[in-house]
What we know:
Layout lengths: L8 E4 L6 H31 L6 H29 L4 E3 H34 L4 H4 L2 H27 L8 E2 L6 H5 L6 H35 L4 H30 L7 H26 L1 H10 L10
Parallel strand pairs: 1-3
Antiparallel strand pairs: 1-2
Helix pairs in contact: 1-2, 1-9, 1-10, 2-3, 2-9, 3-5, 3-7, 3-8, 5-7, 7-8, 8-9, 9-10
Amino acid sequence: MENQTTVAEFILLRLSNDPQVQTFLFLVFLLIYLVTLTGNTLIMLVIRADSHLHNPMYFFLFHLSFVDLCYSSVMVPKMLTDFLSENETISFHGCIAQMFFIVFSAGTEMFTLSAMAYDRYVAICDPLRYAATMRKGTCVLLEAGAWTLAILNGLVCTVVVLQLQFCGPNQIHHFSCEPPPLLQLSCTSPLKMQMVLLTSAVVLGLSSFLLTLISYVLIISTILRIRSAEGRRKAFNTCSSHLTVVGLLYLTALFQYTKPSSVSSVVLDELVSIQYSILTPMLNPIIYSLQNKEVKTALGRMLGKPRFRSSV
């Protein structure tokens, strides 16, 4: 099929054109990126180094931290460069590549969260069979499935976008090449654009969301049947960190990709995108370290925190 694309590069819209604001935003996003790199790398090192964390829950958390590093690195370095440069362009193929890795990273994160939800379901609803069900091979298959589905979804979106025509204008009203703002520049029939977004929303978002939702419906149902308040509290604490992360990611991402055009605006789209693609990868390791006693204990052991013993 003949490539009818005439646009050779795109111009990414800055968050602000004021030089002073740009400097401030550069420092803010640089700090966010450094915290993201440090936090997720630290989580990965702690899980790898501490044998107490070599179990299914932390196997998935390790991969979630790795994906968060990828997700943030796909967007933030380009943003930082644009803040300091007068030329905020990105080549056509560079934009397509960025779009693929955005879709892939988001998909892997969502499906990994679904696998973590299933892990929590087995741990709470069927604890006696947990060790037999969540074996290492099962965990590897679940995570491999998450990566495979995310790659396939990214390839589908990429192939469809490559079939579209971009004949100008070439200014993307966004700070990255996410599918919605990119597809708005296409000269092709709006029906194809809607099909791309619908495919991404259904395959990437809705399917993983439903898997997570079903798991938590069963989890909550089981917790409510626990007679003691202490037992209910302990059961809920085992999944509170994961539930917080799921809420941060799904609510904003699904809103971004399924909201009607009547409530869309450049500022709103950018704020929502910043939340799920930049802030969430930074907050995930903080949430898991603050709410998870095992991670805090392991972190203390790795950093050589002294143990205090009461004198007799």
